Amino acid sequence: MSDDDTELEARLEAQDSFEPPESFVEQANVSDPGIYEQFDENWPECWDGAADLLDWETEYDQTFDGSNPPFFEWFTGGELNASANCVDRHLEDRGDEVAIEWVGEPTDEANRTYTYEQLHREVNEAAAALREMGVGEDDVVTMYMPMIPELAIAMLACARIGAPHSVVFAGFSADALATRMNAADSEYLLTCDGYYRRGDPLDHLTKANEGLDGVEHDTETLVVNRLPEADSFDHDLDDSQTLWADAVYAQKGAEVEPVARDAEDMLFLMYTSGTTGQPKGVKHTTGGYLSWAAWTSHAVLDIKPEDTYFCSADIGWITGHSYIVYGPLALGTTTMMYEGTPDYPERDRLWEIVEEYEATQLYTAPTAIRAFMKWGTEYPDAHDLSSLRLLGTVGEPINPRAWKWYYKHIGDESCPVVDTWWQTETGGMMVTTLPGVKEMKPGSAGPALPGVDAEILDTTGEKVDAGRAGYLTIQKPWPGMLRTLYQNDERFVNEYWREYSDTDSDDWRDWTYFPEDGAKIDEDGYITVLGRVDDVLNVSGHRLGTMEIESAIVGVDGVAEAAVVGGDHEMKGEAVYAYVITEDGYDETEALRDAIVAGVEDAIGPIARPEQVIFTPELPKTRSGKIMRRLLEDIANGEELGDTSTLRNPDVVASIQEQVGE
Ligand code: ATP
Ligand code: MG
């Protein structure tokens, strides 16, 4: 490192807040600091502005209907169609502009570009093919597809005919597919033959067929042919299965009138990742959800039609629904879709894509950023990333060190970084800085968005003081919120409302949404999410957030990633167990162990001192990239391990067990 670099690192490390870059503010979609006050004074009508980002077939009568809590409704009486909003209405001005830019994993394969005109054609033909297959309004269509353009096309085709989709992440097991199709009584499946992962073709249809064996009712399937002849698998389709290409070709030139959907009609179902317990069928609606996806894309991601926006998530997660498909397309921009992993064929694949397509925004996850950090700066440094204007993260808290790395090495200190807290259930972003308005504080997601009323409460429902750990709650409804858990209103009430609401009251003000995350707030209203309620430790009577301790550990030089869990302890109740991955080029030494312990004591206090620091080459992660702390806890306590079937890397568990046993 040169002296200049060292100086810069030292300056960044010492800095704990960052003003939005002037050049960004000047052009930002939202730059008026008065927006917070205006929204507060004008709630709920402030959300008319979100609805105004859409085209309505029939104007709504009422912005918000709170008469039957917690079954809240938005934009009641209004009618609209999501596919008309994401495709048709852009044809006149932007028909020749690119809607979807798809990049496959193999570098020798041509990218696929869809202009709005072409997307319109594909969506119409797919919608006609779905109808031909028998899909009617309100029939749930399951999609079990990787990141191929047909997935986005199929979602929009469903939206066009008013059939809710339920996308099941392609990396999930056959069992997971069967459970979800059974739970939703879904008779239709859209899937594909296979796809590429790290250079190898994967057989997907065999897995899909295993899933179908577990479905209790009759089904019809369309199969997209993704793999070229040379890499294809031997599959025989049965009578209930048709090739997508054949079904769509038969509808060449078809026009399907978008069905006018009531604002409150279901747009889709999404089963949450299931990091904990039984999957929940989160129901999202057409008017409220789409307004929320569009408004947050506009205000937080700063999306403009002329942008090339890149979100590296998978459409199998809510992030891909809201911020690859619905939000960006509702705003008429170019949205990128990348099929593969960021390290194939080399660790600079994302940077290569950003450079080649001149991406203007990048929205990714902290786990990816920590991997980029571990790999080293030579990969981004080899590319021109100057097209980027804004960076975002989602999925878990981002520790200050990773935040600053992202800010400096990817954003060149000229892009705001938005750390966005939200959930499958919230439909879109809830807590984050408005990038053209608010200063950024690494380690904190930021204040609640304008019009979103977040409070941090203790177990008795009292507000906690600034700086103290408590529970994140949302005091007022918002348009993008889930409406219920599919066919399970009771679980919906129990899961999200019972904790902090007066459930006998029919006044919506007595109802509080509980996301089940721990958090704290500072004097400026900035919220730091500490992790799931289940992940908060109780050490000698002190409540400690696992995320906070992890952040301190990852702040130590030489540490790439860390996971903290509580192990049973006779004296303390719980003791801190830290699992640590070192950065490339660092050894697993006693000195590093001491530095980690000291780092935690410095940042939080002796109370948080790790009882054990366990070095490991990998952490057990779910397929969405989240650490499975539950397993690490079982290991720490020497208990029988629970279900490991949703793990991406099940092999790592045995090697960690060995080390803890030592
Ligand atoms: P499940 O609910 O099925 O167990 P999940 O909660 O992991 O799975 P998601 O809805 O994808 O499924 O994730 C939402 C959760 O992710 C939040 O409740 C929070 O715990 C965490 N999270 C997301 N974004 C952030 C963020 N920016 N900062 C901190 N935590 C975040
Ligand atoms: Mg959750």
UniProtKB/TrEMBL annotation:
Query: Which Enzyme Commission number(s) are listed?
Result: 6.2.1.1
One GO biological process term:
acetyl-CoA biosynthetic process from acetate
Residues annotated as domain AMP-binding enzyme C-terminal:
548-626
Leading EC class: ligase
Q: Where is the Acetyl-coenzyme A synthetase N-terminal domain?
A: 35-86
Domain AMP-dependent synthetase/ligase: start-end pairs: 88-478
Q: For this UniProt record, give its keywords in alphabetical order, as a comma-separated list.
A: ATP-binding, Ligase, Nucleotide-binding
Q: Where is this region: Disordered?
A: 1-31
Query: Which GO molecular-function terms appear in the entry?
Result: 3-hydroxypropionyl-CoA synthetase activity; acetate-CoA ligase activity; AMP binding; ATP binding
Record-linked Pfam families = ACAS_N (PF16177), AMP-binding (PF00501), AMP-binding_C (PF13193)
Cite the NCBIfam families for this sequence: Ac_CoA_lig_AcsA (TIGR02188), PRK00174.1 (NF001208)
UniProt similarity note: Belongs to the ATP-dependent AMP-binding enzyme family.
Q: Which PANTHER family match?
A: ACETYL-COENZYME A SYNTHETASE, ACETYL-COENZYME A SYNTHETASE 1
Entry protein name: Acetate--CoA ligase
Species of provenance: Halolamina pelagica
Q: What is the lineage of its organism?
A: Archaea, Methanobacteriati, Methanobacteriota, Stenosarchaea group, Halobacteria
